[in-house]
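User: Can you recover a sequence for this backbone? Please restate the input before giving your answer.

Assistant: Of course. Working from this structure:
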């Protein structure tokens, strides 16, 4: 979602802000801009499009040496209110151009506030909800004894989620900032200080950070950071060491971040296994997961809440959890759970899955679930996230490292493995599964890095087989059982990356309606792995083939039946059905990647998408 960067110090401001904006690109955006102090004025430079377009605009802006100040804020915008355009890009001025604001989030009562301000004679220039913030601050400055008072009053009048950074013309050496339900982190330097939407960005500049909580206001200057609550009372917070991420913008020789991240999946799995499952004979080593065994033994149900790719990981987890533990498990879109009345008790476990740990729908859903008495377990890639804070001692870090490309690949793989390990952990804690079954499964997981690596080495072969389908306007992906969520994930990836319409179905549902869309221009991609569902998937595939659809399969090496039926077979190494998602997803990731690349799409930053969706 939108990204914020701010700096106060002795460095030349524009290069610092641009570097910060580049670090925030992975979040997804449609425009970018900066606000800086120049002499006795505030100056805003912004542009629709990539940061490279903003850099071009900045090259044409010559600054006098006497006007150079070293305080400013920057922003990458993902549109929610108002179309992507130069005028709707952040930062935004108030009418008198004395205040500049950047904002990540959404103001739910913006229309009400806007109408109130219009009645007072304020004229708006943009269609954004953000402009009401800066205009409201300006209005409240007229009645307040201080900037802090005006910001505090403004916050009490806004309903929504937000991270806000503010510059004032009359205070050229300070940045004011506040957050509520949206991430904002302060970077502590020596003779300089920063603010940003995430600690990953700040790790490029500093070693220490302070994490803001809801309704905490900060004043950042060159030599210090002050923190206040909404009652304008000063508060103290300790800084934390931030993990360095030196290679966030390093593609390591790959053409795209996405290709790099797909190829990092064997390493991601290997690292997780090293931490949590160093050998197949010992129990899962979730030493910091403090779930009482008696609670686990008395579980009445498990509810998994997630969005997008994380939801698909949850669907796979449902299959594994119910197989190993016999505990009824349900998976819901977080956004749908917000309008449901699902029954939960103090014997229920809710698993919230979010790569960023800041997904707005997921956070709102898990809060609702906890309010009904359920215990929360969080699965996230970010230790410094809101979901990690909510879950506290009931947390699994998927440890995939920074994923720059908007489309999730290695983080999906990390979520899958984390959830498999959790299922085994619960089964071991409750003695619900046969020990031999668990040992065999753990051994299969231990073998995954080598099998994933073997699959990744087939990328060129996949590319040769796949690009012939790049001109097709629609795709259908089918699977059964544990293969069905991978069909959904594959369809999502193709839509995200190539903009080709794609649908995922349980293969048995094809003849209940979807088969009507099949013709020679609609390829069907079947996930066919030996096991209890294999023959049924083959039969459903033959039904599709009889409708003249081009047929593609993901199948194991040596599958002669698949080779004889399908036009194209994306082979993977032999693997047991229960752990097959770790391999079947890889050729389907490559399918989406190579088709999108062939079509000239922006693979790392697809249109309209954001990495971290921090608004509902």
């Amino acid at each position: 979602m939108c990204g914020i960067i701010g700096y106060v110090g002795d460095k030349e401001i524009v290069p610092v802000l641009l570097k910060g904006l580049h670090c925030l690109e992975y979040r997804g955006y449609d425009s970018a801009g900066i606000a800086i102090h120049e002499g006795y004025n505030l100056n805003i430079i912004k542009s629709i499009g990539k940061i490279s377009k903003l850099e071009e605009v900045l090259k044409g802006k010559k600054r006098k040496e006497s006007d150079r100040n070293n305080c400013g804020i920057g922003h990458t915008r993902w549109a929610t209110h108002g179309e992507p355009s130069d005028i709707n890009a952040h930062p935004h001025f108030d009418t008198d151009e004395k205040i500049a604001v950047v904002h990540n989030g959404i103001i739910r009562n913006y229309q009400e506030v806007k109408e109130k301000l219009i009645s007072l004679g304020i004229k708006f220039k943009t269609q954004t909800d953000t402009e009401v913030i800066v205009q409201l601050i300006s209005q409240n400055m007229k009645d307040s004894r201080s900037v802090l008072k005006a910001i505090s009053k403004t916050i009490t009048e806004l309903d929504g989620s937000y991270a806000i950074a503010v510059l004032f013309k009359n205070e050229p050496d300070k940045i004011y900032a506040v957050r509520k339900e949206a991430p904002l982190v302060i970077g502590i330097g020596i003779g300089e200080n920063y603010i940003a939407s995430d600690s990953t960005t700040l790790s490029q500049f500093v070693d220490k950070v302070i994490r803001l909580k809801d309704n905490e206001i900060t004043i950042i200057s060159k030599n210090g950071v002050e923190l206040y609550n909404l009652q304008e009372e000063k508060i103290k917070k300790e800084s934390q060491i931030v993990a360095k991420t030196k290679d966030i913008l390093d593609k390591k020789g790959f053409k795209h971040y996405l290709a790099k991240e797909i190829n990092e999946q064997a390493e991601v799995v290997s690292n997780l296994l090293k931490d949590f499952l160093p050998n197949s004979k010992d129990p899962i080593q979730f030493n910091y997961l403090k779930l009482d065994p008696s609670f686990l033994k008395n579980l009445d149900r498990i509810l998994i809440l997630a969005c997008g790719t994380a939801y698909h990981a949850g669907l796979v987890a449902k299959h594994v959890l119910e197989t190993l533990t016999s505990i009824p498990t349900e998976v819901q879109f977080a956004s749908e759970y917000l309008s449901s009345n699902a029954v939960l008790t103090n014997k229920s476990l809710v698993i919230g899955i979010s790569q960023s740990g800041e997904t707005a729908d997921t956070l709102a859903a898990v809060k609702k679930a906890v309010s009904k008495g359920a215990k929360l377990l969080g699965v996230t890639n970010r230790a410094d996230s809101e979901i990690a804070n909510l879950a506290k001692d009931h947390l699994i870090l998927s440890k995939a490292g920074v994923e720059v490309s908007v489309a999730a690949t290695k983080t999906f793989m990390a979520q899958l493995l984390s959830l498999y390990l959790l299922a085994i952990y619960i089964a071991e804690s409750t003695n619900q599964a046969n020990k031999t079954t668990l040992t065999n499964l753990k051994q299969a997981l231990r073998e995954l890095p080598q099998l994933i690596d073997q699959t990744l080495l087939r990328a060129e072969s996949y590319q040769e087989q796949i690009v012939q389908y790049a001109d097709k306007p629609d795709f259908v992906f089918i699977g059964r059982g544990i293969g069905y969520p991978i069909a959904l994930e594959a369809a999502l990836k193709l839509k995200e990356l190539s903009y080709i319409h794609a649908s995922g179905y349980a293969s048995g549902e094809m003849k209940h309606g979807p088969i009507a869309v099949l013709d020679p221009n609609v390829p069907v991609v079947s996930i066919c792995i030996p096991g209890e569902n294999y023959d049924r998937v083959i039969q459903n595939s033959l039904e599709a083939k009889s409708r003249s659809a081009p047929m593609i399969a993901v199948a194991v090496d040596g599958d002669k039946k698949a080779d004889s039926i399908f036009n194209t077979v994306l082979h993977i190494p032999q693997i047991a059905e229960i752990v097959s998602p770790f391999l079947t997803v890889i050729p389907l990731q490559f399918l989406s990647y190579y088709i999108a690349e062939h079509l000239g799409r922006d693979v790392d930053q697809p249109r309209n998408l954001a990495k971290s969706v921090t608004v509902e």
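That completes the design. The chain has a mean pLDDT of 92.
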